[in-house]
Amino acid sequence: MPYIKPVYVAYDGANDLEHYKEMQEWTQSDGSKFNFYDGLDLSKKIDKLPDEEVKKLISERIDQSEVFVLLITKFTKRYRKFIRWQVEAAMNLQKPIIVLNINKIRSVDYDRVPMVFKRKNLSLHITFQAPILEFALENWPKSHYEHLEKEEIKTYRYTVDVYESLNLFTSDN
Questions:
Q1: Euclidean distance between CA atoms 108 and 50, whole angstroms
Q2: Per-domain residue ranges of the chain
Q3: pTM of the shown model
């Protein structure tokens, strides 16, 4: 079943726009497009608005989404200000967080994630592939709220079996 609710995608607009554009071309199992949007237009206002106003705009945008997706590349960890604000807003709003690893790692990539992910947080880490993202969008929000209710705050990943059921094979176990 395709996921039709709005999905906020955070990424380094200066370096990772090509990956976001690739995501916008992805189709779901029924052929429909994902409902992605971002805050790139807000990043252009950073120099013109006070930080608190930018943070407020980010929070409002993320609050309109059902799920928060963070695209992780070799640049993400270095791009602190805007990425950090987006992640913190999603965490404060208790949005389901899905982290997409461009390098095919199926778990937390501690070398690339922002520092905020090195603290206790509730998030799902998956590979940068449309089928696993569609699966995560369909399943992670419910799991997220169940874990939140039980106070099981930690990082999660899908098993090899889940990837294999979607015909996705990578070297990372």
A1: 32
A2: 7-165
A3: 0.91
